[in-house]
Amino acid sequence: MPKYCRAPNCSNTAGRLGADNRPVSFYKFPLKDGPRLQAWLQHMGCEHWVPSCHQHLCSEHFTPSCFQWRWGVRYLRPDAVPSIFSRGPPAKSQRRTRSTQKPVSPPPPLQKNTPLPQSPAIPVSGPVRLVVLGPTSGSPKTVATMLLTPLAPAPTPERSQPEVPAQQAQTGLGPVLGALQRRVRRLQRCQERHQAQLQALERLAQQLHGESLLARARRGLQRLTTAQTLGPEESQTFTIICGGPDIAMVLAQDPAPATVDAKPELLDTRIPSA
């Protein structure tokens, strides 16, 4: 927390320079020395005020005899009592009040030949009566009356302001429209490539399906030809198990008749039909 002076009408803080062009130093109140503390408070004009251990007085309120120097450092003597206090308001507040008050400049003196400021033309419907008052040598006031015809209003230029934003909007939309068109063309090309790839895959699938059917037909023909070339002597026996778990029927292609293997208790009831 920065140090500051607690004396009335004093606003010195740490880092400022004093009257001797040296940094202002701060000293705590002698809270443990009652008589000396009362002397400090009497010189400050705050006899009924009780300072705390965190409040200080700056070196500007002590005379040079209240200090002692050791190795270039300024120390406060044990019996030093502050005696320099300002009873008026601080100069800073005076400067602040002066700066807040705006100087009132006197009005410039009127000149005889000073032209009147021109006011904006106000359209009127009829003649205007103008009264001019001015000091003269003969009488205190001279009244001059004249009739003025109203001026025709100046032609206002055609409003072309709304066209400018429209042109700016068109010029701003041109690049955006071109970018969107390029993007659409790019997407169309990608779609065409995907369609070509899909058609190629469909043709390949049809070709593979046809080849698989042709190979299956060839295998069937080969089996048929091999079966025709083999004689009855070279026929093989095929075993087919059908029915329930108690019936097993064996079929053979050789001249031997088919045999039926079954359990003894089921021979008379379960006979497979030819």
What's the quick description here?
Keywords: DNA-binding, Metal-binding, Zinc, Zinc-finger. The strands form four sheets. A three-stranded antiparallel beta sheet has the order 7-8-9, with no helix packed on it.
Structure commentary:
- This protein has 274 residues and is an alpha+beta fold.
- Among the domains are: 26-98, no CATH class; 177-229; 237-263, no CATH class.
- Helix content is 32%, strand content 15%.
- The protein is built from 3 helices and 9 strands.
- The strands form 4 sheets. The chain has a 3-stranded antiparallel beta sheet with strand order 7-8-9, with no helix packed on it. A two-stranded antiparallel sheet has the order 1-2. Strands 3-4 form a two-stranded antiparallel ribbon.
Distance between the termini: 118 Å
Report the principal-axis shape. Answer: elongated
How many helices does DSSP assign?
A: 3
Radius of gyration: 62 Å
Model regions low in confidence, pLDDT < 50 over at least 5 residues: 91-104, 135-147, 258-263
Sheet of most strands? 3 strands, antiparallel
Overall mean confidence score, pLDDT: 69
| Oligomeric grouping of the chains | single chain
Task: Work out the number of β strands.
Answer: 9
State the helicity in percent bands: 25-40%
Strand order of the largest sheet: 7-8-9
Output the helix-strand order: EHEEEHEEHEEE
How big a fraction of the residues is strand?
15-25%
The helix/strand class is alpha+beta
